[in-house]
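Illustration: Phage portal protein.
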Amino acid sequence: MAFRSGNTISGKEGRLFLDGEEMAYVKSFEANIEKEKTEVKVLGRRMTGHKTVGASGTGTLTVYKVTSKFVRLMINYVKTGEDPYFTFQEVLDDKSSGRGTERVTIYDVNFDSAKVAGLNAEGEILEEELPFTFEDIDMPEELREDF
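Result:
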């Protein structure tokens, strides 16, 4: 099958859910897995080998400032020590690409930081950038094939 530009997937054709609630005020979302590796030195080889020994999940959520939810989360942690974990589900569904719907769920999401106050004299729309970590990920079996 030949590649066609119409098969590319638009990131605008997606939705994000936090614990089952759609977040309509998302500007961007990105989650990454980075493999942790250790070096392996082998006699007779000049190049260092690398063995994967684990992985780490990180990401960034950027939202338009329309709620105080994330401020309250941080204040609650400072006041009570309660540090909640969440589940994100990303749904990517660009019908014009012909690819179908992709659903990726990440578990045990914990926010690293949140802007708790901010003003802008320029009149710009306020945004919040929320870095996070996560501990597990899944995708339905039928979507794990190579496209």
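Reading the tokens back as a structure: The first helix runs from residue 69 to 80.
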